[in-house]
Design a protein that fits this description.
The chain has 264 residues and is of the alpha/beta class. It has a domain of 168 residues: Rossmann fold (3-Layer(aba) Sandwich). The chain contains 11 helices and 10 strands. The two termini are 34 Å apart. The C terminus is likely disordered.
Length: 264
Amino acid sequence: MDDKVMIEVENLSLSFGGVTALNGVSTMLLKGEIFAIIGPNGAGKTCLLNCISRFYNPQKGRIFYKGEDITGVPTHSIAKRGISRTFQNIELFKGMTVLDNIKLGRHSFLKSGIFSDIFYYGRTIREELELRKEIEEKIIDLLEIEAIRKQVVGTLPYGLQKRVELARALAMRPEVLLLDEPMAGMNLEETEDMARFVINVNSMWGVSIVLVEHDMGVVMDISDRVCVLEFGRKIAEGSPHEIQSNPQVVSAYLGDDEKAYSRL
């Protein structure tokens, strides 16, 4: 397999009872790119992310990560392979501080033993200090959340909680980052900030990104390639310019009215 391919999805199908969520979807994420997945509600976008991150088991097809077939890999081992994600609905520990939530992103990677963990000495202390330094000097600085690092997450506005969830995903040191509607529910300023952070993670850290997003302005501005789903099928894939000028995409995603092209 081409070493430029980070993730390859091959003929993926997923059903729930009589409902088909994905129907023979094939696509790929290339190294270093921002790859957007768009489509109407119910098109299968989040289902595709859930298959890649192993929350769902597809009935047909295969998923490869850097040439390795991960279709049957347990969910808990995906992060250790270099894939992390955020969720459409914020999944944070609301009673914990920002810093503690972010640190949880690296918890499964720590190597100290149970004895030193219980008595908090030696290797546990060194790992804790190294982790905190990395988070504070790199992730918190990048996402501009220094002022809130000691605050309890549940007291923060929605937009800042979204940043904290992104920070926790970055604490896993991913090579691939799956973002499920990171701008959903945000105002214009928050959306612009989040788009800037996504670009910086991609360009400065070299993280390959799969982006599921409804904001077409953001998608067309920051994506290298776009995949369009409709009723679980892939109907188009290409550059933002190619997607904007595809009549089938405009019809399926936006309807056939005269203003459809300008909204894409």
